[in-house]
Design goal:
The chain folds into 2 domains: about 220 residues, Rossmann fold; about 190 residues, Glycogen Phosphorylase B (Rossmann fold, 3-Layer(aba) Sandwich), CATH 3.40.50.2000. Helix content is about 45%, strand content about 15%.
Length: about 450
């Protein structure tokens, strides 16, 4: 299988190379860590102060998060793992540039590396270099050659906060003859919901490896609006008690244009309305800045703010990475993006819900299907069908503070009721490590 996969990957790389080269030249994407990704060469970054990385003095746990969201959910899991297993080394990997930067920021005392491309040589060399006893994958990121290489070296593989949507199941089933045996290589699947657990089982994962733990993302969120990061942003943005703050976060095209048009009309009726616009991808910051220029609205870029905002009528374009989690604590109304375009499947609505904001999102939320459905069911969020309905709901919430507060209180109560997944996940990981040690000693 590795040879076949290498051939398929090589063909795909050749077909896409003109486009990848163009994006690398024009945006700077795909260049960082390319050698390590392609050839599996590992360069330790910020080694642990306890002992030199890779010295063999301790077993290694390798935690992987694809991008910023997965790196965030790993925070509490890694912290808990390090408390319970202080003699282990921990390594963090990620796939994207933004994920790498966030991992460096969140785990300053741990090695941070790029995840290798799924060529057999890259997977083998990276695993040989890191030499892990355990690999923990946040939410998924299942690559065949990596799983094969890990199994051949006797590395335990765990998926935590596992998510397997119906759409993903359909995609995997297209290659079921090749993919189905690989699910047997996963030693632990800690799934978010019963539905996801059933989907993993349908794809061939062993029933003994599947456990339902809930979503770790509920544990990692902040519920206190008085936290230092949110308060620092409140002072910088000069948010006053009379202000009504609308945050449109993790937005994708064309959502920013929709939001700006709604804001222009709503602002005529609500003098105290403030808009903070947070695009999902840093590569689009300039694009959204040009959109704001064309709109005629006065705006400020977060990256250029060095002193508190003077003109509180200006839209704030948040062109920084890693601040949305704290910014949600300023929101009276929160629109969660990636949910109207029909391409992204929604973004994390747990964070604004935890702060007690009035949460609104569109119809396309398959990435957070269970959370979205349960928030709507408990009347802790409003799901809109289209732009017209978004405008009507936002205007209604701006005009009705009591409805905003009720929505926020119900949302926050729901989030608190779902917490505890980190504890359950650690119980599963500890059982896996205990079983592995038993098998090794018996051998």
């Amino acid at each position: 299988m590795p040879y076949l996969l290498n051939a398929v990957y090589s063909l795909g790389l050749m077909v896409l190379s003109p486009w990848l080269l163009y994006k690398a030249i024009t945006t700077g994407k795909y260049r960082r860590g390319l050698r390590a990704k392609l050839f599996g060469m590992h360069i330790p970054v910020t080694p642990s102060p306890l002992h030199p990385f890779g010295s063999g003095a301790a077993p290694v746990a390798w935690f992987h998060g694809v991008s910023v969201g997965e790196i965030h959910l790993l925070r509490q899991v890694v912290a808990r793992f390090r408390r319970e297993h202080p003699h282990w080394e921990c390594v963090i990997s990620t796939t994207t540039d933004t994920g790498f930067d966030e991992a460096r920021r969140r785990f300053p005392d741990l090695p941070v590396i790029f995840w290798p491309f799924d060529f057999s040589w890259a997977a083998h060399r990276t695993i040989s270099s890191v030499n892990p006893t355990l690999v923990v994958l946040a939410e998924g990121e299942l690559w065949p050659n990596f799983l094969i290489a890990a199994r051949r070296r006797g590395v335990r593989v765990a998926v935590i906060n596992g998510r397997m949507s119906p759409r993903s199941v359909r995609n995997y089933r297209l290659l079921s003859m090749l993919i189905r045996p690989l699910f047997k290589f996963i030693d632990l699947i800690a799934a978010q919901t019963e539905a996801y657990a059933e989907n993993y089982a349908a794809l061939g994962a062993g029933a003994e490896s599947i456990h339902v733990t809930g979503s770790v993302k509920y544990d990692g969120v902040v519920t206190d609006r008085q936290n230092p990061q949110t308060q620092a942003l409140r002072r910088l943005l000069n948010v006053q008690p009379k202000d009504v703050v609308w945050i449109a976060g993790s937005t994708q095209a064309p959502e920013e244009e929709m939001v700006l048009k709604i804001f222009q009309r709503a602002r005529a009726e609500h003098d105290s309305l403030r808009l903070l616009l947070v695009p999902r991808q840093k590569e689009r910051f300039e694009e959204v800045a040009h959109l704001l220029h064309r709109s005629g609205l006065m705006f400020l870029r977060r990256s250029e703010l060095t002193a508190p905002v003077r003109d509180r009528n200006a839209v704030v374009l948040v062109d920084t990475i890693g601040e949305l989690g704290a910014l949600w604590g300023l929101a009276d109304v929160a629109f969660v993006g990636g949910s109207l375009d029909g391409k992204r499947g929604g973004q994390n609505m747990i964070e604004p819900a935890a702060y007690g904001a009035a949460v609104v999102f569109g119809p396309h939320v398959w990435n957070f299907r269970d959370t979205a459905a349960r928030l709507v069911e408990c009347e802790g969020a409003i799901q809109v069908a289209d732009t017209g309905m978004l405008e009507a709901v936002v205007k209604r919430l701006l005009s009705d503070p009591s409805e905003r507060r009720r929505l926020g209180a119900d949302a926050q109560q729901f989030v608190r009721s779902q917490q505890g997944a980190t504890e359950r996940t650690m119980e599963c990981l500890n059982r896996l490590l205990g079983a592995a040690q038993y098998r090794e000693s018996a051998a």
